[in-house]
Amino acid sequence: MHTQINADVLRDLKRGNVSAFNSLVSVFESPLFRFFYCRDGNWHLAEELTAETFTQLITSLPAMRGGTEQLRAYVFSTARHVRSRHLRRRPPPHTSIDATTELSWSGETPFDHLAQSESVKQLLRAISQLDTQVRTIILLRFVEDFSMLEIAESLDVPLGTIKSHLHRGKCRLKEILQEMGYEK
Predict the structure, then answer these.
(1) pTM of the model
(2) How far apart are CA 68 and CA 89, in angstroms?
């Protein structure tokens, strides 16, 4: 999936055009929020970090190199730096990711809804047991649908490292899910 920001809008973003910034927010607000929420399991922190990321992008986008194909990696790299700065300022309280999971799913029956909700909670609980970098790679790849190259660019990590972390992460996730009682 590529961004819906074309070269003209990117040029306007780099010049500080407000309507172009509104386009950036409409494209990236939900993915950034999901990224932070899946990482920390805290709704309010995800909102705060999403807003802080856009604030940072206002000042940093004029210096961005490359075109629209690098924009998504640049935005998520900025998000990663914003989160790192936030964590250095104040360490996160330990919050169980399933304790704050609020899911809305329109299943056919209340039982279907409950089963789906529990499955997602179990998956998030399993993902939260992965190492931080592996968890980030898994979320970017499978939740945000980043390509391997986009993940490498946004995390500033070699492509081979991304591939090996992704492979080991999927294997470890499978082990964790099996330990939790899920088959295949």
Answers:
(1) 0.67
(2) 32
